[in-house]
Amino acid sequence: MEITTPAHQSDHYFSDEERDAVYKSIYLRRDVRGQFKPDPIPDDVLARIIKAAHHAPSVGFMQPWNFLLIKNAQTKKKIHDIFLNANDEAADMFDSEQGEIYRQLKLEGILESPLNMVITCDRDLAGPVVVGRTHDKSMDLFSSVCAIQNLWLAARAEGVGVGWVSIFNKKALKQALKLPTSVTPVGYLCIGYVDHFYAKPELQAAGWRDRLPVEDLICFDEWGNTDNTEHKGLIEALSKPAE
Amino acid sequence: MEITTPAHQSDHYFSDEERDAVYKSIYLRRDVRGQFKPDPIPDDVLARIIKAAHHAPSVGFMQPWNFLLIKNAQTKKKIHDIFLNANDEAADMFDSEQGEIYRQLKLEGILESPLNMVITCDRDLAGPVVVGRTHDKSMDLFSSVCAIQNLWLAARAEGVGVGWVSIFNKKALKQALKLPTSVTPVGYLCIGYVDHFYAKPELQAAGWRDRLPVEDLICFDEWGNTDNTEHKGLIEALSKPAE
Prior knowledge:
CATH topology of the largest domain in chain A: NADH Oxidase
Largest sheet of chain A: 4 strands, antiparallel
Number of helices of chain A: 8
Structural class of chain A: alpha+beta
Oligomer: homodimer
CATH superfamily of the largest domain in chain A: NADH Oxidase
Radius of gyration of chain A: 21 Å
Shape of chain A: globular
Largest interface: A-B, 135 and 133 residues
CATH architecture of the largest domain in chain A: 3-Layer(aba) Sandwich
Number of strands of chain A: 5
Strand order of the largest sheet of chain A: 1-2-4-3
Strand content of chain A: 5-15%
Distance between the termini of chain A: 50 Å
Helix content of chain A: 25-40%
């Protein structure tokens, strides 16, 4: 078999305005836990954000994801109970002062958001050998994560809030959703229109952790080499405020 | 400690044009393996795409990533050799017909791209207990993946190509980059301006795998429930061509 050269993109360029819009979605995206409004998401909007997820990169073009949509109040209640159990366990893992703050954090909007969505990864979808996954078995999970991030940014551009809930006993979650053994729930998302988006990530605003200065996270050619003599321009550009 | 309510975003809305630009970056993003031009990426452009990565969501606001920039020809050569070894092993894993096609696939641009970048995850950065990672230890790796996807989309909007290479013996890669035990190389990226972007993913164009119809990937409330009687509008919207 001969591989033919594929066609090129004709609409190649982004204007400055288009480029800035991409950055706007990246900077204004928030992990939304509250502020959900009950308004349903119109089918065309929901279809667009699901298609954005489906156009994520995937290892070996595997597209290992499914989209499990949850609107049923009983199902949500069951999932919320699984969250509550895990969240109690989580709170006890912190020392008493941190644990006290932890218990005040709002970490999910399972019941309030009009739509929950599970983005899964079928580990067996493409057989045992997948291009690009031969040496890192997690690459298919990472593909599903890229789908989530696409969905998250698309949703923000649509004015729709998304929160990723990860505090579950995975076995209980799989059982509640009847997922087969080979299917992993990669992200449990709460989705809906919101009253507002916060200006800063909530954990940052709550003083839990600060944003790290990005210029401190750069090294060159090998770990620990932060000699930036030849990269002064880059470090200077990184040190400028982002927005 | 009392948690104060953080400020809201004032610049809340996206125009249709801004929204469409976000989708444009999602649809035109490609995994680039060839077509790299040697032109260096200006500091301000590189700083913007690194900052986009740094504004990814992260579990417990952990920001577990570092950005290891590789321009040194000797280092690239060493990494390329590690790829070649792994790629030979990979080719042997396929049956003879698939193996023959596999060997024709161009899967990386390590030497040709002007910049390689490793996005890492420091598993120990925030101590043993992290908000949101108590029940899924992979959440910090997933945060680094979100950073990669942000970078990928930002780069596309800047006209910069990015390819993710995952065919490495991880131990050899860590050793070559002198990564400490706690630091995982999540994504090895080849970055640079390109002659053109392909209209379709290369594996799709090569006939390796087709894009799955997204409407077949939806289920409701539990796995296997594809009864869409109440969701006909969504399925119809999903079935329309994406672009």
